[in-house]
Amino acid sequence: MNVRVLDLFAGAGGFGLGFRQAGFEIVGAVEAWKYPAETYRKNFPGTELWERDIQKIDAVEVEKKVGRPDIIIGGPPCEAYTVANARREKEPIDRLYKDPRGRLTLHFIRFVGDLQPEAFVMENVLGIIEGDLKEALRYEFGRVGYEVKFNVLEASVYGVPSKRTRVFISPIRIRPKGEKRKTVWDAIGDLPDPRDAHDIPNHAYKPMPRRVEKVVHRLRWGQAPVYFKGAKRVHQNYIRLHPFRTAPTVMGASRFVHPFSDRLLTVRENARLMSFPDSHVFYGPVEQQYNQVGEAVPPKLAFKIAEVVKGKVGEL
Q1: What is the spatial distance between Cα 121 and Cα 127, in angstroms, rounded to a whole number?
Q2: DSSP conformational letter for 138
Q3: Residue 254 pLDDT more than 80?
Q4: What pLDDT was estimated at residue 231?
Q5: Which residues, 6+ apart, have CB-to-CB distance to 267 below 8 Å?
Q6: In CATH, what class is 184-294?
Q7: Which end of the chain has fewer CB atoms surrounding its CB within 10 Å, N or C?
């Protein structure tokens, strides 16, 4: 019997892809935004997709359509919590209860409470457990019947060629087995120059902004010409990647410069850094495709998590 998964805040499907690769059946998904929903629909043609605001969806409606899921997964929007947001609420607790984007996390919890799955995994940035937030989330999940664990995982430890530290909140203690780290060149070294003839999806050449074009030839590995201020630190953009190291965190707004060519990485190269297979195609305008990649859960990490969850199903 297949283990049935409901994928909330599904995005372009990285979380769901990892679970599908591990043998789970993705029976339903919710994604409000047009272009990620298009990407999800075309990569998961057998999954019932609600392209609507989760705040306007009743769990009963989902259960009537696809049945009660065994597992719920999802990554609510992180903008309210991330240190990259210089305008986030000053008090951590207000990010969950006052910020409209932060309150979407409570709708994940609502679905968990209404559907009572055997287990769930909710992904987000570390900022979601800052200050009083950790205890608030413990309380909210407890209120619907679950005692949770806060599993902090770094993607590159599990074979993803880019760094990405996130927390996975679940009733399960998630400690996957690590594997050898992969470098940028491990991930993209076999791809052709996008200006040459090829048939690789999402591998179109992307012109760079004039301000970057003027200085890109002077950039050494690890250097960047553009900086922006977040809530706690300054972030780099247009970093020239070091080919023999793991890439920095891929974000929706981030763009990388190729290690050896004076050009930006393509969407496909970014997707490779996030462990997406070339068979997973992204749709919509190019900038939206970059965003979809950068906002995803790396499928390789999702697979590792799914393997742990699979071993616990029936034991909870």
Answers
A1: 17
A2: H
A3: no
A4: 46
A5: 202, 203, 204, 206, 282, 286, 289, 290, 293
A6: alpha beta
A7: N
Whether the Cβ atoms of residue 290 and residue 255 lie closer than 8 Å to each other: yes
Task: Answer whether residue 144 shows pLDDT above 90.
Answer: yes
Per-domain residue ranges for the chain? 4-180+296-312, 184-294
Beta strands in the chain (DSSP E): 4-8, 25-30, 48-50, 71-74, 119-124, 149-154, 165-170, 226-229, 234-237, 239-240, 256-257
DSSP symbol at 143: H
Are 267 and 204 contacting, i.e. CB atoms less than 8 angstroms apart? yes
Confidence (pTM): 0.92
Structure tokens at 64: 């009537």
Tokens of 306: 């799914």
Give me the amino acid identity at 221.
Answer: W
Pick the CATH number of 4-180+296-312 from 3.40.50.300, 3.30.420.270, 2.160.10.10, 3.40.50.150: 3.40.50.150
Pairing of strands 234-237, 226-229: antiparallel
Q: Catalytic pick from 30, 78, 160, 251? A: 78
**Within 67-209, where are the H helices?**
92-97, 104-115, 133-143, 184-188
User: Is residue 257 within 8 Å of 274, Cβ to Cβ?
Assistant: no
Would residue 66 show up in a list of annotated catalytic residues for this protein? Answer: no
